[in-house]
Design brief:
322 residues; alpha/beta; Nucleotidyltransferase, domain 5; 2 domains; 5-stranded mixed β-sheet; 8 helices
Length: 322
């Protein structure tokens, strides 16, 4: 199960000459977040799968496993699957200094209570405290897409960028925004929820209660509803439509916040590949017409499948030193 990620040449943007600690505390160095021998447990909790791994301070993954997210209404059964995944790691977790978690939202600040839209079993679930009690380690929790934003800014496609949005287009759609080199938090830690920007007025109902959100129209869940098939089997026209709608959401955010870069990951976006990204870029080009937003780029996440765990690790590594 051992896996190593080499970040040195990961998709750097054109403005990579800017300060290299964008989106991280000012004491977060380029080569790592702490002692080279330091490791943390990284957890990514999504609507379809739970991933667990051991990640070092240079962003390398040393062990990992993935299990399906239980289809259950029992909060304790779901939490048990999470702790079982930690226990199945190769034993290196016994030397970890902290646990970093990326989890779907919304949530209250620091993951004290999480209510992921795609995980109905957890409503106001006290995730951080329960993990800390069970594992006897410091635990740091953030929205999974904000975690990805940290990871891509640390050693990924946004390395060196001071202003960007990172997105996950997967079972759901989420985002994290770095502005002036700082990850936006918002009133209760939920800033960046681009999945609930409305891109089709009077469109499909969304789990949030609105209609026509990016998540309701372009997520893996939405695609399965529209096509009656798994997203991986979606035809070309659906792949292009998904890219257009994601590009429409990005354009709105770029026009609002003066963001020149969008980094998009997740099984839907990366799985749809060039068809998705070409359609997203064309939509951005058509809708970003202000002088400052013209030229906004969308690129695939450089961390690929490693992104969720590296992002979760960054939540712990950098929060511990903030």
């Amino acid at each position: 199960m051992d896996s190593t990620h080499d970040p040195e040449n990961a998709g750097q943007p054109e403005n990579a000459g800017q300060p290299e600690n964008a989106g991280q505390p000012e004491n977060a160095g380029r080569q790592g977040a702490g002692s080279p021998n330091e490791t943390v447990v990284a957890l990514d909790i999504g609507g379809t799968k739970i991933a667990a791994g051991i990640v070092d301070a240079g962003g390398r993954i040393h062990d990992r496993l993935t299990v399906p997210t239980p289809a259950t209404a029992d909060a304790e059964e779901l939490f048990g699957a999470l702790t079982a995944a930690i226990a199945e790691l190769d034993g290196a977790h016994r030397h970890a200094t902290a646990i970093g978690v990326g989890c779907g939202g919304p949530m209250t600040g620091g993951g004290e209570r999480v209510s992921p839209l795609n995980i109905p079993a957890w409503r106001e679930f006290p995730l951080r405290a329960r993990l800390a009690d069970t594992c006897a380690l410091p635990v740091y929790v953030d929205n999974d897409a904000k975690a990805l934003a940290r990871g891509e800014g640390w050693i990924g496609a946004a390395r060196g960028a001071r202003d960007y949005i990172a997105m996950v287009v997967s079972t759901g759609v989420g985002g994290g925004i770095v502005l002036d080199g700082r990850l936006l938090e918002g009133d209760d830690g939920n800033a960046g929820h681009i999945g609930h920007v409305i891109v089709e007025p009077e469109g499909a109902p969304c789990g949030c209660g609105a209609r026509g959100c990016v998540e309701a129209e372009a997520s893996g869940t939405a695609i399965a509803r529209i096509t009656g098939r798994p997203p991986a089997e979606a035809p070309s026209e659906i792949r292009a439509r998904t890219g257009r709608l994601v590009g429409r959401g990005i354009a709105s955010v770029a026009n609002l916040l003066d963001l020149p870069l969008a980094v998009v990951s997740g099984s839907v976006a990366l799985g749809f590949g060039e068809t998705f990204f070409a359609a997203a870029q064309a939509e951005i080009d058509a809708r970003c017409r202000l002088e400052f937003s013209r030229g906004t780029r969308v690129v695939p996440g450089a961390l690929r499948d490693d992104g969720p765990l590296i992002g979760a690790a960054a939540v712990a590594l950098f929060a511990a030193r903030a």
